[in-house]
């Protein structure tokens, strides 16, 4: 799960950075506010990569997804991109857990992995 979720979070890191560049063009938003909020979200993306398997890591990831969709208020394209990344997040968590379970079952086999060519 960690690999899939981390890949999604790193993708979000870049999308948030590019969205900040777009948000800077809005005359109602100050540049410092845009970069403060975007910077916190970008740091959170990277930090979540390290704690995703710990208690509450997935929930924090969901909170980030909600914030990403909500950022569409300032950059309308983020409604779409936020929903895309929320779907990717769901898939990363769902299929990542299935992969982890399959790895655990495979590792628990008494004979170990099959020899090549058998």
Shape type: elongated
Portion in helices:
over 70%
Question: Ends: how far apart?
Answer: 30 Å
* Tally of individual helices: 4
Content-based structural category: mainly alpha
3D structure, described in words:
This protein has helices spanning 2-23, 31-51, 57-70, 77-107. 75% of the residues lie in helices and 0% in strands. The two termini are 30 Å apart. With 118 residues, the protein is mainly α. Helix 1 runs antiparallel to helix 4. The chain is built from 4 helices and no strands.
Itemize the secondary structure elements and their pairings.
Layout: H1 2-23, H2 31-51, H3 57-70, H4 77-107
Task: Name the features.
118 residues; mainly alpha; 75% helix
Could you give a short description of this structure?
With 118 residues, the protein is an all-alpha fold.
């Amino acid at each position: 799960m960690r690999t899939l979720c981390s890949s999604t979070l790193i993708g979000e890191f870049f999308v948030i950075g590019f969205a900040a560049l777009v948000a800077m063009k809005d005359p109602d938003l100050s540049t410092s506010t845009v970069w403060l909020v975007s910077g916190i979200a970008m740091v959170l993306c990277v930090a979540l990569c390290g704690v995703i398997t710990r208690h509450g890591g997935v929930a924090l990831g969901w909170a980030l997804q909600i914030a990403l969709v909500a950022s569409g208020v300032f950059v309308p394209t983020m409604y779409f991109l936020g929903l895309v990344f929320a779907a990717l997040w769901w898939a990363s968590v769902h299929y990542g857990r299935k992969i982890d379970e399959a790895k655990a079952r495979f590792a628990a086999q008494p004979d170990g992995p099959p020899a090549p060519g058998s």
